[in-house]
Amino acid sequence: MKALVYNGPGQRSWREMPDPVIQDPEDVIVRVDAVTICGTDLHILKGDVPTVDHGRILGHEAVGTITEVGDSVRGVTSGDRVLISCITSCGRCEYCRQGRYGQCLGGGGWILGHLIDGTQAEQVRVPFADRSVYKLPDNVSNESALLLADILPTSYEVGTLAGQVSPGDTVVIVGAGPIGLAAITTSKLFSPSSVIVIDSAPARQKAALDHGADLAFGPDDDVVATIKELTGGFGADVAIEAVGVPATFELCTQVIRPCGRVANVGVHGAPATLHLEELWIKDVTITTGLVDTSTTPRLLSMLAAGRLAMPGLITHRYGLDEMQDAYDVFSRAGETGALKVALFSDESKDLEA
């Protein structure tokens, strides 16, 4: 099969790799029908995630069709169309029993495209299948389902829920990439009074407004003073960091009001300064986290019922064998205007927006 392989910082290749095989009775093999690229993949290629070995197939978000099932799998069968979650779960360890699947101690967690070969390939082996893939309703397209593999549960759990967004809140989201835009959508499920987005790219500021933000600012705006003015001198109730660089995290801590909540979602590859000398007296809560995907069934039900949608988020579509072109476009999002890219196999192209 062909797959996108990480060859070290700054190096990748689309090349032949061995077909995956069942290694454990709880495994399934999935033919990849649709797949996407995550900002985390770009962090890996920059060398920000040293736990990824050279030679690893990248990717942790996909939709596909099961072609082979391990003897212990009970919930899905060959021929089922499934969502492949970015998180796998053994279901037995202490953290999985608490629904904290991202911290799985039994061989799961974020392993696809990280510790084992991932989804940016023609086929993929998925461990712990009964708890790590989700059978898709007929009315949910491959393209729509891709958003449930990572960005929607991540923005919902690590951003909106961790930040405790509540009715009437002022929510500031720093970063209008796919996660930031998804955070707009999931925050608005809780009826905040306003959602304000900060991003350096004018095209992404516009995308934020198109996806429901009330206001969008750039780094040249005096955003700290402006947000305080808009909130009667207080600041934001919730600030969601959706980039993963020191400056954006520090900006979140500057726009937050006393007793506010900062929810860090971005993947950081460098230290950020935490100004405890300013924050300790303000009773500010700061959360971090890896998505657990415990809310994926809920989000899938909402998607199937037409209660959750992000039209326009996928801006570029490719065939699976155009993986290198898709990476080039996605990695230059500031120039290309790419938000989210989707790649489809020849066997199952799904170009529904």
TrEMBL record:
CDD domains: FDH_like_ADH2
Transmembrane segments: none
Requisite cofactors: Zn(2+)
Key words, A-Z: Metal-binding, Oxidoreductase, Zinc
Signal peptide (from-to): none
Top-level taxon of the source organism: Bacteria
Enoyl reductase (ER) domain residues: 8-343
InterPro entries for this protein: ADH-like_C, ADH-like_N, ADH_Zn_CS, ER, GroES-like_sf, NAD(P)-bd_dom_sf
Family classification: Belongs to the zinc-containing alcohol dehydrogenase family.
Protein name: Alcohol dehydrogenase
